Amino acid sequence: MDLIRSQQRTGFGNFVKAASIVPINDLKGAKSGRFADKEQLVRCKLASCYRLVDLCGWSHSIFNHITARIENGGDDHFLINPFGLLYNEITASSLHKVDLTGRIIDQGTSEFGVNKAGFVLHSIIYQARSDINFIIHVHTAASVAVSALKCGLLPLCQEAIRCGNVSYHDYQGMYIEDKSDLVTNLGPVNK
Q: Which segments constitute the Class II aldolase/adducin N-terminal domain (predicted)?
């Protein structure tokens, strides 16, 4: 009964109290055959990351997104959540695989579409930076507060220093019209 009981989430300390109904790895066995071994592993890790973000209270309903690049023999594909599933509902099989043009390569088990704003932002970053394989986009109170400061993230503690150089891009609406502006602001090595 504990597995289906809903829990109150109050922040980062709820790992012990957390309950999840839907398994993260729902790919039907270690070697399902539907996905290459490497993709299957990335799918499970990404679904786990969605659950972790949710357990920490960092999800913002259905309006954030976490993606992971999939190495596919030279083709640029990445996994993104179906637009409409809550973070605690995302599984390895429900993730969409898309290419950089927005074409859905694999719909997964969900009938939902792709969040256009999330796709646009992440596809620009993946296209510009081949060294980036994973992107987390959240609206936590702390990240919103830091982004509102003119000085941005200050190197005042070990955690901030570990971030390295951080890029800033002024909000220009949900859909980015000028991709080159975002690429320039991101820079060649910033996080």
A: 44-189
CB 121 within 8 A of CB 97: no
Question: Could you tell me the CA-to-CA distances from 96 to 31, 111, 128, 184 in Å, in that order?
Answer: 19, 10, 21, 28
The answer to whether the pTM exceeds 0.85 is: no
Q: What is the pLDDT of residues 111-156, one digit of tens each?
A: 999 988 889 889 999 999 999 999 998 888 888 888 888 888 888 8
For Cα atoms 75, 78, 80, give the angle at the middle one, nearest 5 degrees: 155
For residue 99, what are the CA distances in angstroms to 16, 45, 166? 37, 20, 26
- Please, what is the end-to-end C-alpha distance for the chain in angstroms? 42
Helix (H, G, I), strand (E, B) or coil at 55: helix
Collapsing DSSP to helix, strand or coil, 102 comes out as coil
91 with 47: CB under 8 angstroms? Answer: yes
> In angstroms, rounded to a whole number, what is the distance separating the alpha carbons of residues 127 and 5?
42
